[in-house]
TrEMBL record:
<dbReference type="InterPro" id="IPR014867">
    <property type="entry name" value="Spore_coat_CotH_CotH2/3/7"/>
</dbReference>
<feature type="signal peptide">
    <location>
        <begin position="1"/>
        <end position="19"/>
    </location>
</feature>
<keyword id="KW-0732">Signal</keyword>
<dbReference type="Pfam" id="PF08757">
    <property type="entry name" value="CotH"/>
</dbReference>
<protein>
    <recommendedName>
        <fullName>Coth-domain-containing protein</fullName>
    </recommendedName>
</protein>
Length: 599
């Protein structure tokens, strides 16, 4: 009885629906030479470009709830219609929809936690970027200043063009939009070799608690589409800049914490003591980021904190190198955050971060934390990860076959095999054991295919359509911008986040990948499980019996033409001598190659 009445009741209701005001907000992803229209009941209404690329309009509703957005040329002609169908709901007026994109609700799950965080992390004003949505940024910049940047990312001899240009930017989130004055600059070094350049905006007023927004074509945090003037660049990662504001939030968990002096580093920042003053450190390897003007010890020496640490660490080595007691570790922990660097090192080993702290002495912030009165190392720029090492001659080919590689992986890559900093740490069994323990917990709880897959799959779901859009854009982007381009396909993308490598095809793609993401996680986690079980057996047996695959390394020094050359004899299972860096100023990657590209 009840059920029979229901359709009748519903049809009565629809008959009485009154016209309502419906508001629409949509973000264009097509650049400023197009407008957006609303197509409703077969009529097209041009929408208002409130702050480009956000268009709005309000209509009186009729009975249908279906609508679409269309792309209009400047004469108001429809040049394209969305492929997707939309239905008006109570939510529509309060969100910013995106042209030709479904209103997806993706809930990216956090990775399982291995340990409680060491730092308080996050304030109300400065939250992590929301990785459940894709932001959109449009910048209107001074045309000739901007052209100077995009056409000349390098000056002569590979020197970075550090010019800036003035812009007005509109930053659109799912529910908000922000307009700011900003200056635009290029970022990175390698990134400038690509047609799809990497950018940073410094803002006159904060957005999401930040005074700068940094867009990189590589590595992950949250996502944003980027359009500058008429150039639709496509999908980028929006990443944080490790400055005072970030430190305040992420390390101290306060809005205006007393933050200390910090230095950014490039390959070769070995943390060796070289002397007391600026002239010993200010050679492009260490760059002062923030100076704590209230540091009572520094006396105006901007490099005081670096020198002080380097000296203290060297003294600690001298005093405790033959001491295996807890006292040695306690003495170190009085001035250095050991636990944080060990956690970081486990991640670097598992992901094979060949351009970071351990392997390359770079891409880390060296920070004096005045709240704890301790020095600490804060990593950034993990773009050289999950690739394995095959693309770098610095590492052996058999790195995945030796379990020991899980702790020794970076030793051989370093210039002159110099493992000054990490070697001194691992000289202490207590520290080495803690590293092993962290690795064990990390593999069990996070670094395995089952634990990471939900994150990978949800991000795929969020960005897949934009990834495909992005692939086509590179050929439509201003042809006068020189630089490498990549032409991936959806199959490449899906394959590479799973178990497929990406072949190097120089005519199509400059970048390749020796491993699929899940493939790497599987292989490396399995390898390091073996390493850990060898270590465990080793401990139980007390005496050092053979680890499955051992290698003895002897270093001999000979002098030719006054330069010291290290040669290595590698016995047992090793087949090849593994080269170290050939570039004197770097521990790391073969930067020499870039000279060729720069013409
Ligand atoms: C910086 O930009 C200005 C304006 O576009 C230009 O005149 C100048 O040559 C640029 N400087 C460099 C070093 O490229
Ligand atoms: C940008 O700067 C101009 C001139 O200083 C100022 O009038 C305007 O309000 C600023 N706009 C924004 C969005 O901050
Ligand atoms: C590493 O490179 C060698 C030589 O190019 C190749 O034979 C081998 O298959 C590569 N290994 C992986 C895992 O890509
Ligand atoms: C000693 O180590 C070996 C392998 O290294 C292992 O097979 C053996 O079970 C260990 N002995 C004990 C008593 O655990
Ligand atoms: C030593 O120096 C000379 C002259 O600069 C050079 O020809 C020679 O190759 C050098 N020898 C080695 C072993 O580097």
């Amino acid at each position: 009885m009840k059920f029979e009445l229901l359709p009748f009741a519903l049809s009565c209701l629809t008959a009485f629906i009154k016209a309502e005001s419906w508001k629409f907000n949509v973000v264009s992803i097509k650049g400023p030479s197009y407008d957006i229209g609303l197509k409703y009941n077969n009529k097209v209404l041009k929408m208002e470009p409130s702050v480009f690329p956000l268009f709005t309009t309000t209509i009186e509703s009729e009975s249908s709830k279906n609508y679409k957005y269309v792309l209009l040329d400047k004469d108001g002609n429809v040049v394209e219609e969305e492929e997707i169908k939309r239905t008006y709901t109570s939510e529509t007026s309060s969100i910013n929809e995106v042209y030709n994109r479904e209103n997806k609700v993706v809930d990216i799950p956090p990775l399982p936690k291995v340990y409680d965080p060491l730092f308080k992390s996050g304030t109300n004003k400065y939250q992590e970027y929301d990785d459940n949505e894709i932001y959109t940024l449009y910048a209107k910049c001074d045309e000739s200043e901007y052209n100077n940047l995009k056409y000349n990312p390098f000056l002569s001899d590979g020197v970075k063009n550090e010019n800036t240009t003035n812009c007005i930017i509109n930053f659109i989130t799912k529910t908000k939009n922000y307009q700011r004055n900003a200056t635009l600059e290029l970022t990175g070094y390698d990134s400038r070799l690509y047609k799809k350049l990497s950018w940073k905006f410094k803002l006159n007023k904060k957005i999401l608690g930040r005074k700068s927004l940094k867009f990189r074509a590589t590595y992950s945090s949250a996502y944003s589409r980027v359009i500058i003037n008429d150039d639709v660049y496509g999908l980028y990662n929006i990443v944080d800049v490790p400055n005072k504001r970030w430190l305040s939030s992420a390390i101290h968990g306060k809005k205006k914490a007393h933050t200390g002096t910090s230095y950014k580093t490039r390959a070769g920042a070995s943390l060796k003591y070289l002397g007391e003053t600026e002239k010993y450190y200010n050679n492009g390897v260490y760059k002062v980021i923030e100076i704590d003007k209230n540091d009572p010890e520094a006396n105006g020496n901007n490099y005081y904190r670096l020198a002080h640490f380097a000296k203290t660490y060297a003294d600690w080595i001298d005093q405790y190198q033959n001491d295996q007691s807890q006292a040695a570790v306690d003495a170190l922990e009085k001035f250095f955050n050991l636990e944080s660097v060990l956690r970081q090192m486990v991640i670097e080993s598992l992901t094979f971060s060949y351009d970071n702290f351990w392997a390359n002495s770079g891409n880390y912030l060296f920070y004096y934390n005045p709240e704890q009165n301790k020095y600490q190392i804060i990593p950034y720029d993990f773009d050289g990860t999950f690739h394995g090492s095959n693309s770098s001659k610095r590492f052996g080919e058999d790195y995945l076959e030796e379990p020991e590689n899980c702790i020794s992986w970076a030793d051989r890559s370093r210039r002159h095999y110099d493992t000054y900093f990490v070697g001194a740490l691992f000289n202490h069994d207590i520290i080495k054991n803690r590293y092993n323990e962290i690795m064990k917990d990390t593999i069990n709880k996070v670094f395995n295919v089952d634990s990471i897959s939900p994150l990978i799959e949800n991000i795929r779901n969020l960005i897949e359509v934009d990834i495909v859009w992005n692939f086509d854009l590179i050929d439509k982007l201003d042809n006068k911008i020189s630089g490498f381009v990549n032409h991936y396909t959806l199959d490449d993308f899906i394959g590479n986040i799973n178990y497929d490598k990406l072949e190097y095809k120089p005519s199509i793609n400059n970048n390749f990948a020796n491993f699929g993401l899940k493939q790497w996680i599987k292989l490396r986690s399995e390898q390091c499980q073996i390493y850990l079980s060898n270590v465990a057996n080793d401990k139980i047996n007390k005496t050092k019996t053979t680890i499955t695959i051992t290698r003895t390394i002897t270093t001999t020094k000979k002098t030719t033409n006054n330069t010291k050359t290290d040669t290595k004899k590698i016995s047992t299972t090793s087949r090849k001598i593994i080269p170290t860096s050939t570039v004197s100023s770097r521990c790391g990657p073969e930067y020499g190659a870039y000279k060729l590209i720069l013409k």
